[in-house]
Design a protein that fits this description.
CATH superfamily of one domain: Trypsin-like serine proteases
Structural class: alpha+beta
Strand content: 25-35%
Distance between the termini: 79 Å
Helix content: 10-25%
CATH class of one domain: Mainly Beta
Amino acid sequence: MRGWFCAVLLWVVASAGLAYDLPRHGSTKRSTSALQELQKISREIAVIAQRARKAIVYVSTSKTIEMPFGYSDPLEFFFGPNYRRRNQDRPKRKREGLGSGFFVDLKRGYILTNNHVVAEADEISLKLANDEIYDGNVVGRDSNTDVAVVEIKDKNFNRRSLQALVLGDSSKLVVGDLAFALGAPFGLEASLSFGIVSAMGRGNLNITRMGNFIQTDAAINPGNSGGPLLNDAGLVVGLNTAIYSRSGGYNGIGFAVPSNLVRRVAEQLINDGRVQRGYLGVQLQAINPDLHKSLRLPSDIKGALVSQVMRGEPADKAGFQAGDVITTVNNRKIDSVPELISIIGLIKPGVRAKVGIYRGARPKTIYVTIGAYRDDKHPRRSAHSSSGGGGSGVFGMTLSRVSDRLRKQFGFESRHGLVVVDVDSNSPASRSGLQPGDVLLSINGVKIKDVSSLRKRVKAASRPHIRIERQGQFLFVALRKK
């Protein structure tokens, strides 16, 4: 019986082996079709690369710098230490840099690159895609956006085999779109890398003061700075600017200035030689989940919280108040502080803007005439001073009246309010993020007079938020009761 069963099993297996055949027609067609699509995509990428390379410029810079006295100099062996000091002749050396750029106007010889590529350069050398090399001149540059425009000094430069790139509309980008980065990483000319748009609206990167960056995983390395980031139509959607890296090399996270911002800045640099930046005159802070609840904002509303209004500035004249949440500018939604700064900064001074806000959980519209940004080092005075009082001990904080001694110790400006002298660990105040040196100014919009009134207000409010000053910066903190 067992032998018969084994014989039948062997016959089944053998029959199955003989009967099985590899797929022929259907799957082969599908494979061929997929291969053809892949080849088509590959050819389109090659076309984009070949066209774009004709616009790429390799930017070499040099700057002569004086070495400080005491610099190790081999000639001191022969002439004694500090011989240059005796002759008032400091040693000098050249500091060189390398970056990328691309033509946006071939007729006029205008090239876009990064500000940090050409900043403070004594000499700029431009190598074009046709291997011609020319001296360059800075038309204008803006450190706040890291955008610069360079031109070729020789107006009769050889334009053979060259072309300019076209700036596309970066607002149409979505996460997942194809992205191509061109430039000279580590000096390797005509390099192309390929990836996708990883994220949009990246702010708070400490790269520049303005700009919501495009994040991409297309390889960007030193030398790529100033090169174009292209979409699948070959249009420039970004200006490659920075990378996130622990080693200094490619880690899969690169950033580019959006083309819409690049266009506005470049046009002002070409026409005026500088960028006029719009200004409201407010301090802003991001809205965390606790503040969102405390401010009683609708769940779908984002924005930027006004933590301070500067006296006599455009926002003050228009009627803004600390605690307002800016949600739209000229009907454009605001999702973050960096986005608001970029939008306001790109509005020309003197233009009247329509600003949507939430005040006390209710929507409101304010019209404000945008002012001109002044890049000074002196903080503007606040528009609204606060009353004060004194006392100590509440929610894990040791509090004191404002005094000249505490003002000098903690470096704050306010002359009224309660100063946080100490904070107990694992207390409601500590969990809320309050720190020694903070000055408590108001709670839920009501000025803080003394500790007893503070306690009453906190007890009465279901979700209290406190406005504070921290070394000249004004913030809102959602106070946790437990």
